[in-house]
Design brief:
The chain has 375 residues and is an alpha+beta fold. The chain has nine helices and 13 strands. Bound molecules: N-oxalylglycine (OGA) and manganese (II) ion. N-oxalylglycine binds next to strand 6, strand 8, strand 9, strand 12 and strand 13.
């Protein structure tokens, strides 16, 4: 009986994931929570922000509006989950999108293409793709550029997808601009000491999805997980601590920021579907390139190059979504456990998503309790 119930429950997330992922017939998107629309959802609450934690000047340096202007929400029943509606200043979303496409995939950062291509072949995805992308006719079947084959990039402590761990032996400098942005956002949400140590960037096309998972490889769950999205929209499913908790579907649009902290830091979530932006434009208007940021630059060749770069970004983003997730891996006073390679592999078993849900839950409860007790 219990097993049957569990199986039924387990289906709740999977069923909804499959429903939103399916192509024919397409799913009904009308009941999905949309924080950008002045609709009434009983679960949506206004979230308080720490308006004095960052100055307007510091916010501006990160490309953000003054915190007092941000619209932040939380959800009843999802403690620690926060949704900030696009707080970016005009012209800044395209800055971050361009970093994700042109700069962050560069070495020494790691990407999915490195798994089966030589460093020489993946030296500069941007340069290797730009002409091909520029000349592409939308809707026509043509060979994919490397940039269109890009699925993920890791930054800082590079996440190991096999062992599901970070290692002190595989760290490269975390991008300073993204660290600054993350630390400002974290501070505004009440996390003054947050350190951006690892990043996973996800690159989605219209047919991509991200499976049901929990981000539990970091060592300090008292630190939030930040997620920034640009380009086309997504359907995001937010479940609970247990795999069988039915998830709440919500839209994420370009510029929106999600913070997972507290209890929801370990909640199951997934992205079953990428959807065209709801304005029905090729590129959402908040993401449009504005030259105001660069008008002060007398360097016309720089401005021309920037315009050219934006043409490529815009072409890519017409059918894509880019998501940057930023994590603190090590808590204050924590250090990486000393493990041999073989230990690391066996050790990774209890963290796998396919284990007994009861045991998994107990494991998570203990970890959250430990996080709450830490300074
Ligand atoms: C992740 C993640 C969600 C998204 O990278 O862990 O959950 O919105 N991303 O793409
Ligand atoms: Mn995640």
């Amino acid at each position: 009986m219990a097993a049957a119930l569990l199986e039924q429950g387990e289906d709740a997330f999977r069923r909804l994931f499959k429903y939103y992922k399916r192509r024919q017939p397409p799913p009904d998107l009308s009941g999905i929570v949309d924080f950008s629309r002045a609709q009434q959802y009983c679960k949506v609450l206004i979230a308080p922000l720490n308006v004095t934690s960052i100055s307007d000047q510091d916010a501006c340096k990160a490309g953000l509006q003054p915190v007092c202007k941000w619209k932040a929400y939380s959800l009843d029943g999802y403690p620690g989950f926060m949704f900030i509606l696009d707080p970016f200043l005009p012209g800044w979303q395209c800055y971050w999108a361009k970093q994700c496409l042109k700069i962050y995939p560069r070495k020494p950062n790691v990407c999915n293409l490195d798994l089966h291509m030589s460093p020489e072949e993946t030296k500069d995805l941007w340069e290797q793709s730009r002409e091909q992308l520029r000349l592409k006719t939308p809707g026509k079947r043509e060979a994919k550029s490397l940039l269109e084959k890009l699925r993920w990039v890791t930054l800082g402590y590079h996440y190991n997808w096999e062992t599901k761990k970070y290692s002190p032996d595989h760290y490269t400098a975390f991008p300073m601009d993204l660290a600054y942005l993350s630390e400002q956002v974290a501070a505004a949400c009440g996390f003054q000491q947050f350190k951006a140590e690892a990043g996973i960037l996800n690159y989605y096309r219209f047919d991509s999805s991200l499976g049901i998972h929990v981000d539990e490889s970091e060592m300090d769950y008292s630190k939030p997980l930040l997620s920034f999205s640009f380009g086309q929209s997504a359907v995001f499913l937010l479940g609970g601590l247990k795999r069988q908790d039915p998830p709440l579907p919500m839209f994420i649009h370009s510029g929106d920021i999600i913070i997972m902290s507290g209890k929801s830091r370990l909640f199951y979530h997934a992205v079953p579907r990428i959807v065209p932006n709801l304005e029905g434009r090729a590129i959402p208007s908040c993401l449009e390139h504005t030259t105001t940021r660069y008008n002060c630059s007398a360097d016309t060749s720089y401005r021309q190059r920037d315009e050219g770069d934006w043409e490529i970004c815009a072409k890519y983003l017409q059918s894509s979504r880019v998501n940057m997730t930023v994590r603190q891996v090590v808590g204050v006073g924590q250090s990486f456990p000393v493990t041999s390679d073989t230990e690391m592999i066996t050790d990774s078993q209890p963290y796998s998503y396919h284990q007994d849900p009861k045991e998994e839950n107990e494991h998570k409860r203990q970890k959250l309790e430990a996080a709450a007790k830490s300074p």
